[in-house]
Amino acid sequence: MRHLQGGALSSPQKSFLSLENHVKSVRFLTRLAVATTLLVSPLQAQVVGGPATDENCFPFGCLYAGNPSTRYQQVYSASAFAPINIGSISFFLGASSAGSLNSGTYSFYLSTTTAPVNGLSTTMDNNVGADAALFGVFQLTGGAAPSVLSFSGAPFQYNPANGNLLLDIRVSGLTHPTGGFAYYQGRHDAANTVTSRMHDFGLGAEHYGLVTEFTAASTVVPEPSTWVLMAAGLAGLAVVARRRTV
């Protein structure tokens, strides 16, 4: 039997340590690559209803006759969209507005509808599409109106080939604090064929619609370089493992 002198390692021990070190290196490089190259895919944002020609305080910045609850619908023409998995909805404060938001609970629903722009029914349930889904329930608590009022909710996959998009907002516990009304950008003219609204307190301004931004839900995907680095590391690991078994 041969005895090792001076703490020298045998060939099997060297192979094992080499393999172990290589595994650690591959793990480190892989984690580093994932950490540095995982990117949020570019967000697809679509603004519908612009350019703004007017401003309106309903339904976020004022009440109608002091009603504690209300319902607001806005339909958007399919022609204004590309397919989108909606993750957030935003509205833009008017240039002349310095008022306060309402306080209340806002439930947002999205659906694909056959109802036309400038043709929403006063029987509001008839406007709702079969794929209606709750986007989110949001609590507004008054305060100064932000320049961009955004709501992020459960993603809704919208395909304009199937019809127009309907935003259905149902509000309860509604009050308005002192501080003046908050007006958000909108468009109000009979020639508006892109968006229109309906509310539950009678006819009026059906050609009106708030300028709205729909942003796609974000997804995290690795860049191609990540896969290349991982593949190279695994290939190196396979080579070391093969040498160890020879």
Structural class: alpha+beta
- How much is the radius of gyration in Å? 29 Å
Provide the β-strand percentage band.
Answer: 35-45%
Number of helices: 2
Helical fraction equals 10-25%
Low-confidence stretches: 1-6, 32-43, 226-230, 237-241
Number of strands: 14
Question: How is the biggest beta sheet arranged?
Answer: 5 strands, antiparallel
Question: What distance separates the N and C termini?
Answer: 22 Å
**Average pLDDT over all residues:** 80
Strand line-up in the sheet with most strands: 7-6-9-4-11
Shape: globular
Listing every helix as H and every strand as E from the N terminus to the C terminus, the arrangement reads HEEEEEEEEEEEEEEH
Sequence-ordered SSE layout with sheet pairings:
Layout: H1 11-37, E1 38-40, E2 45-48, E3 54-56, E4 70-76, E5 84-92, E6 103-113, E7 133-141, E8 148-158, E9 164-175, E10 184-188, E11 195-199, E12 208-210, E13 212-216, E14 220-222, H2 224-245
Antiparallel strand pairs: 1-14, 2-13, 3-10, 4-9, 4-11, 5-8, 5-13, 6-7, 6-9, 10-12
Organism: Gemmatimonas aurantiaca
Protein name: PEP-CTERM sorting domain-containing protein
Pfam families: PEP-CTERM
Question: Gist?
Answer:
With 246 residues, the protein is an alpha+beta fold.
Q: Your description of this structure?
A:
InterPro entries: Ice-binding_C. This is PEP-CTERM sorting domain-containing protein. The chain is α+β, with helices and mostly antiparallel strands. The chain has a domain of 166 residues. 20% of the residues lie in helices and 37% in strands. The chain contains 2 helices and 14 strands, in the order H-E-E-E-E-E-E-E-E-E-E-E-E-E-E-H. A 5-stranded antiparallel beta sheet has the order 7-6-9-4-11, with no helix packed on it.
